[in-house]
Amino acid sequence: MDKEKRLSTHIAEGFRDLFYIWREELRAVFRDSGVMIFFFLVPLAYPVIYALIYNPETVRDVPLAVVDQSASQRSREFIRRVDATPDVRVVATCGSMDEARRLVDSKRAYGILLFQPEFNRDLAAGRQATVSLYCDMSLLLHYKALLLATTEVSLDMGSEIRAARAPQSTDELQQIYVAPIPYESVALFNPANGFASFLLPAVLILIIQQTLVLGIGMLGGTAREQSRFHHLVPLDRRFRGTLRVLLGKALAYVIIYIPVCLWTLVVVPHLFAYPSVGNPWDALLFLLPYLLASVFFAMILSGFMRTRESGMMLFVFMSVILLFISGISWPTDAFPTYWRVIGQLFPSTPAIRGFVLIKSCGANLFDVASEYRLLWIQTGVYSLLAGLVYRRQIIRVRRKMIREYRAAKARSVVG
């Protein structure tokens, strides 16, 4: 009976300490303006700022310079059609390539369309004619707009020229001759071909992990700076249990980040009308292990922060690297093996792939089972490692307290 009573008392004490640690961690967050910036200002403001920067998602009226050495009716028709597209605007017809290059160098044009003198003669003789497009590759969106517009005009005029050279008895036969296999281009999962719809979902996921790492790292550095023994764990009997410290701190971070995640990953995409064809419940269930894995991952790293600024110096520059190795901008199959292995260590890598598939492509949890499973594995592994980090801190603080107590006792005896 006494044993059961002691056990229940110990459990009750553990819960009291857990909620005390949870309360103290929340106070530490709201007392620290630097942590408040990482936990609230960055995840609340950055998604809106990024969305406004990339809204509208496509570029229109990209300036184009033309060098028409053919000066024929067909070259002028080609130029007129290119200028009529919504993506391109012809700003100048130049007499030479040097003049056109000066426009590109001064950023008054982002491409040059060149018609050789033999352009019309080749078409009249039934030979293939060449239209050259020179692009400023400093911005791929401009290159894409120029290339697509000129390609579409080239295909359309080529079809018309072939039809005029081989007239058929009926319009239907004429259409079959010109386009024996009709095709239609359909942009799946990104109807507007928008840059923000492609990139922003991945960036939003990465913001969650990086702000947690930076904020919790700053808390860890502050705790060391303020601690008598320069450790994460304060001199308080309520912090003597590893499990209660780990769960108390993690609970505080999770509670703070639940509304942050809803704002970043639900409200902002809805405000800016990003593609969202997946089941919202699948997305929320998928985010649960990601949030937990990110919290425990950040708690592990906080154990190595010696000052408040250590996290910023170590982890801010990694954001671009993590975005690349997630596979959203470059296929993971093209990565070296060691980069693929390194990428699996970060919760953001499977989370970005899975979240984009759910939100933008309509996948369910079964379709992203490998990413979902990996996030739960990371949650389990990182929680154990975080427990070891805090256990080591608790033991070291306890040993130093014992040494100081013995030294003080020895001094009192000598005195």
Mean pLDDT: 85
Q: How are helices and strands ordered from N to C? A: HHEHEHEHEHHHHHHHHHH
Strand order of the largest sheet: 2-1-3-4
Helical amount: 55-70%
Uncertain residue ranges: none
Strand residue percentage: 5-15%
Give an overview of the whole structure.
With 415 residues, this protein is mainly α. The protein has helices at 2-31, 33-53, 73-84, 97-105, 119-124, 140-165, 171-178, 195-226, 242-271, 280-302, 310-315, 318-325, 337-343, 348-361, 369-414; strands at 62-68, 88-94, 111-115, 131-135. The chain has a 4-stranded mixed beta sheet, sandwiched between helices. Helix 3 links the parallel strand 1 (62-68) and strand 2. Helix 6 crosses helix 7 (171-178). The protein is elongated, with a radius of gyration of 31 Å. The mean pLDDT is 85.
Task: Give me a quick take on this structure.
The chain has helices at residues 2-31, 33-53, 73-84, 97-105, 119-124, 140-165, 171-178, 195-226, 242-271, 280-302, 310-315, 318-325, 337-343, 348-361, 369-414, and strands at 62-68, 88-94, 111-115, 131-135.
Write the layout of secondary structure elements.
Layout: H1 2-31, H2 33-53, E1 62-68, H3 73-84, E2 88-94, H4 97-105, E3 111-115, H5 119-124, E4 131-135, H6 140-165, H7 171-178, H8 195-226, H9 242-271, H10 280-302, H11 310-315, H12 318-325, H13 337-343, H14 348-361, H15 369-414
Parallel strand pairs: 1-2, 1-3
Antiparallel strand pairs: 3-4
Helix pairs in contact: 1-9, 2-8, 2-9, 6-7, 8-9, 8-10, 8-14, 9-10, 9-15, 10-14, 10-15, 14-15
